[in-house]
Design a protein that fits this description.
single chain; 7-stranded parallel beta sheet; 6-stranded mixed beta sheet; about 15% strand
Length: about 325
């Protein structure tokens, strides 16, 4: 049987950052690649230029959506593999109606984000950044008690908001430490939380009051807009650490800033609603904020994991096996 035809709808600049030579060899063995040289732009014109041929398409950041026009040009398309995070930019009602199956590399990105969250937990609790700044200013141990005082996570409560790919991976990583893991996610059962080594909490209020470390890993969608209010941050214990690598619409920013200005806890922020953050934004100036420029997930080598995951999914699909990271229209409603 002839190998299925595959369209590489991944832009030239991105392509080598996502697919290693080893994984490309695997892809060539599985499929017939229609365009061995990736396009400079994976725009709609590119999608239409390969009309009628593709059984499988690989997309990524900045790929045009497979809308009704693109779908009409690809009557054989049965699988779309997104070598990036959220599939929202590349799917359409027409695609779902056609019954094209969709899978995403978001789970690969989760490894890097979860590792970044863990690094922030271990360093922010000990106030590493702040103490390092103090030594540059000629001080020594004087910064240790800043913003409520540093601590370690031994026998302490750590809370994770959202048990998607990132939240689950972070909970697994925290299993290497002697800490109490808690999770808030309305879509996660208590049994599933226990399998992750965590206790499910039913309310955000309980999580913020109980946990000295809180990591926001809930998806960015209209269902999570402003889920975190000032009252939640007011409930944090002095010295607590709040980490946001998820987004910013989940946070009511004005109320969050009001609590931050009290200096009772520290916040590590890697995602903002508008990026880059304006030069006069309080995130840049508040002394108890550690702001990083959206580097948690796929800054460098971890991008190659995305390519591996995507090709693994193609391999499973062609073998008639269930894909591990398939995205359905129904599930997308609760995803980023």
């Amino acid at each position: 049987m002839a190998a299925p035809s595959l369209l590489l709808a991944v832009e030239e600049a991105l392509f080598p950052t996502l697919f290693s030579p080893r994984d490309l060899d695997r892809l060539r063995a599985l499929t017939t690649i229609l365009n061995p040289e990736p396009p400079k732009k994976a725009d709609k014109a590119f999608l239409l230029a390969h009309a009628g041929q593709a059984d499988i398409a690989i997309t990524s950041w900045d790929t045009a959506a497979f809308d009704a026009d693109a779908l009409a040009a690809h009557p054989r398309l049965s699988l779309l593999c997104h070598a990036a995070g959220s599939v929202r930019p590349v799917v359409s009602d027409a695609l779902w109606e056609r019954g094209v199956r969709v899978t995403s590399g978001a789970a690969a990105i989760a490894y890097g984000v979860a590792e970044f969250c863990l690094g922030l937990i271990l360093t922010a609790t000990k106030r590493v950044s702040w103490q390092a700044q103090a030594t540059r200013a000629g001080l020594w141990m004087e910064a240790k008690p800043c913003f409520g005082g540093g601590f370690e996570i031994y026998q302490q409560a750590v809370g994770v908001i959202g048990a998607g790919h990132i939240g689950k991976q972070l909970l697994r990583l925290l299993g290497n430490f002697t800490c109490d893991r808690y999770v808030y996610d309305p879509y996660l059962s208590a049994e599933a939380a226990a399998e992750l080594g965590a206790t499910k909490l039913e309310t955000l209020e309980e999580l913020f009051a109980k946990c000295r470390v809180v990591s926001l890993n809930a998806p960015t969608n209209e269902g999570t807009r402003h889920m975190l209010r000032g009252k939640h941050f007011a409930a944090l214990q002095p010295g607590s650490v709040f980490i946001n690598t998820a987004g910013s619409i989940q946070i009511h920013e004005e109320e969050f800033l009001a609590e931050l200005r009290k200096g009772r806890f520290v916040a590590c922020i890697d995602r903002c609603e508008v990026e880059p953050v304006q030069l006069d934004h309080p995130y840049r100036t508040l002394p108890n904020v550690l702001l990083t420029p959206h580097i948690a997930g796929v800054m460098a080598e971890n991008r190659l994991r995305i390519g591996t995951f995507v090709i693994d999914e193609i391999e499973r699909h062609l073998a008639g096996e269930p894909m591990r990271y398939e995205v359905t229209q129904q599930a997308l409603a609760t995803m980023a």
